[in-house]
């Protein structure tokens, strides 16, 4: 592409309303433009990068015999009602009505519709395995869109689905897709980890996430460098390393703590370490109240609670509900005398003589032991802390931040049973189809890539992802030798299948150089004073190395 007469612009200054490096650079490089909260236009350069990423995905999907199709964005609401996900998505789903008051949604994901498509071809076990995928827009009403392309309300996703006769066949299809995902992210050039994750609203028996390592990532990854254990913090198993406290059990005592209703206050005013406290957290789980007990320096894990109680909604009680349950001001809840179900974290089993709230304003109990109150269940309900013991090998766990760019699910028969996707097996018995689901956030890959590959001058693209592989910059548009040589190289590179951007704007050379660095073109050819002698400069964007090359050697040098 020649820049004169085509759409190209850059911004010198940082963008005020973009909080991530990737969004700032992509806007400045003229690749995306913000339309509204979580809504972006992909401009010509950004669209080319997006298409390059899609082509990598498409090649790897086709290589494992997955069939591409595309589905509509406007979908009948009743399809999601049949699968039970209309309520599960809740306010995250965009909903609308047509002129006849028929209800529709903007597709947040397409499991249900793929099942409907599969019904037309799957009748018996001979019709499987089957794999389908699409690259299409999805819509979710994000309560807080942020970080540019990382969390948006309209986004581009590659979603694939496999259909098999049993779990053994599903495992083969899953592994083929899993391996393809590794190839995709390696070709793109991402630094990533694969972690176990919560299945969430998708359901199923297994969920794994491909997480691009990044400081602004919204997910916390728990990693053990000793054995390779890796999981999302939401589902990380907590292994208790502490042994039963050896001190003698004391009799509980009521302790006057005026206006001290937090862990921090108790620590500061009475020098009680949080590890000697047990906090009582009151929640409404679906329509029932529960008390959850964890050590004072730990955090409750709501995802684990949801899984433990198979709950749809897990929310902390309101201040008014707290006072009605405890008959005290907020901050003084405790397990003694509480008349709602109590679930304690397994770590508390090793504690003695701890401090709890007394369900009485301005009072706590000290020297409390498990024999002082009744509890209904012991479970792993806390969030793992950095440095905790690895549940697999006993090593030390470390945290990393990640951006989820891909996920894989073993869905099982959840959707096939709900929507009537059955087949006849070898014994002519009717059975539900076993499904797998696999997603990739295409635009998120772009954002994660830029977060990982940039410097003070701009983006650093690899040749396979870059909008153009080579840029040719003419230093002086009034110099006929420079213009002629640049045009000659431009034609030669195009004939060799290279994607080339020719900067033939009548601007100062410094401005052009900065633009090419900002946009991240991997190789820059500068045609300047040496043109009359057939000499050009070639710069590698990644390491800023500049080499003088004879015009006759340019093609072989770049290759």
Structural key phrases:
559 residues, alpha+beta, BirA Bifunctional Protein, domain 2, YbaK protein, Rossmann fold, 3 domains, 9-stranded mixed β-sheet, 5-stranded mixed β-sheet, globular
Short description:
This protein is α+β, with helices and mostly antiparallel strands and 559 residues long. The protein is built from 14 helices and 31 strands.
Summarize the structure in words:
The protein is an alpha+beta fold and 559 residues long. 26% of the residues lie in helices and 29% in strands. The chain folds into three domains: 21-236 and 399-450, 2-Layer Sandwich (BirA Bifunctional Protein, domain 2); 253-379, YbaK/aminoacyl-tRNA synthetase-associated domain (YbaK protein, Alpha-Beta Complex), CATH 3.90.960; 468-558, Anticodon-binding domain (Rossmann fold, 3-Layer(aba) Sandwich), CATH 3.40.50.800. The chain has 14 helices and 31 strands. The longest helix is centred in the N-terminal third of the chain and has 22 residues, at 167-188. It is globular and about 95 Å long. The mean pLDDT is 94.
